[in-house]
């Protein structure tokens, strides 16, 4: 898979779910970077998803919008669409959703000269046991993972892919993630928080409601200390009260209405992360990834769930602290270590 820039093949990116979390946002940057260099690309995605909407300004002619996601295994309608793109000259396929490999890899056996790259987060689901699964997975030319820890884990669980796993550490544009470029008092004022108050925050994800619940329970335990309660606020960014009644009820149950703020999503993630005094990632089911690393770049300490990647980034408590995944008691204990 060695290409000079002038002969770089047309790339087909596959986004086959409606999710738009950290992984998807990071993956879109790959598309935008190719576009910036004037390289040829196409994207196959689900119609009217956030990914679809964000790609439209870059050229509708480059988008193959699907009415729905393909079946997990051997979707023959998807086969027709995929092979039409191959026959039209696609020279490289990059898949960001491992849930649909069963409807991608079998049809790619017909095109052995077209490299297939797969990006995978920390949740390795299954060991390959079935013969046909092993055959199809042999069609992967490179499996990209964000850490050496995850590479070792996949090599143990999927021996057939052991020599194909490549570590691509997340990178940052430090022109964007530069604390000197922001006035963080503006966002704190928008949240109604005094400049002298500590702000503990997390960025919400609808997929991980248990993580938000653990965050709220940790706040309840932490705020029992009146001195800490007087100088600390908790913020969940990217969430509204409407549609999140379970979390609202939890806040009401613990009488935290004056201490926990639901804040709308912000376009500038660096501004959000830099406005916090501590950034929390309480679930190991979420990719440790970019937002925690971005928080470190913005000078914000982190508390993150122990997982396959996290220890590589936090080190020996030099950059942040590890907590037990989803454990609200452990989270509040780590908060005290930082803020007391």
What does this structure look like?
The chain has helices at 22-36, 50-55, 76-87, 105-108, 131-137, 148-157, 184-191, 209-222, 226-230, 245-253, 269-274, 289-297, 310-314, 328-339, and strands at 11-15, 41-46, 63-66, 92-95, 116-119, 142-145, 165-167, 198-203, 232-237, 260-263, 278-281, 302-305, 320-323. Helix 8 (209-222) packs across helix 14. The chain has 14 helices and 13 strands. The chain has a 7-stranded parallel beta sheet, sandwiched between helices. The chain is α/β, with parallel strands linked by helices and 340 residues long. Helices cover 36% and strands 17% of the residues. The longest helix is centred in the first third of the chain and has 15 residues, at 22-36. It folds into 2 domains: 5-167, Glycogen Phosphorylase B (Rossmann fold); 179-339, Glycogen Phosphorylase B (Rossmann fold), CATH 3.40.50.2000. The radius of gyration is 22 Å and the shape is elongated.
């Amino acid at each position: 898979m060695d290409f000079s820039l002038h002969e770089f093949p047309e790339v087909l990116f596959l986004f086959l779910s409606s999710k738009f979390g950290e992984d998807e946002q990071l993956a879109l940057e790959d598309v935008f970077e190719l576009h910036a260099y004037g390289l040829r690309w196409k994207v196959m995605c689900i119609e009217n998803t956030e990914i679809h909407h964000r790609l439209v300004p870059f050229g509708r002619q480059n988008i193959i919008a699907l009415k729905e996601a393909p079946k997990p295994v051997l979707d023959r309608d998807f086969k027709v669409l995929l092979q039409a793109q191959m026959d039209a000259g696609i020279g490289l396929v990059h898949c960001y959703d491992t849930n649909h490999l069963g409807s991608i890899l079998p049809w790619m056996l017909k095109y052995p000269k077209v490299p297939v790259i797969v990006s995978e987060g920390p949740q390795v689901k299954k060991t390959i046991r079935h013969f046909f699964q092993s055959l199809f997975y042999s069609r992967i030319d490179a499996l990209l993972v964000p850490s050496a820890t995850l590479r070792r884990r996949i090599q143990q669980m999927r021996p057939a892919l052991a020599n194909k796993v490549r570590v691509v550490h997340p990178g940052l544009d430090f022109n964007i993630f530069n604390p000197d470029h922001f006035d963080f008092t503006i966002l704190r004022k928008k949240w109604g928080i005094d400049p002298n108050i500590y702000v503990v925050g997390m960025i919400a994800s609808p997929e991980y409601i248990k993580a938000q619940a653990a965050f709220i329970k940790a706040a309840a335990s932490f705020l029992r200390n009146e001195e800490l309660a007087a100088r600390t606020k908790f913020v969940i960014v990217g969430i509204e009260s409407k549609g999140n009644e379970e979390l609202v009820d939890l806040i009401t149950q613990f009488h935290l209405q004056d201490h926990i703020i639901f804040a709308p999503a912000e376009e500038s993630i660096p501004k959000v992360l830099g406005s916090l005094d501590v950034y929390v990632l309480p679930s190991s089911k979420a990719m440790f990834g970019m937002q925690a690393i971005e928080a470190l770049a913005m000078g914000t300490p982190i508390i993150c769930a122990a997982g396959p990647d996290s220890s590589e980034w936090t080190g020996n408590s030099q950059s942040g602290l590890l907590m037990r995944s989803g454990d609200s008691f452990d989270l509040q204990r780590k908060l005290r270590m930082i803020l007391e």
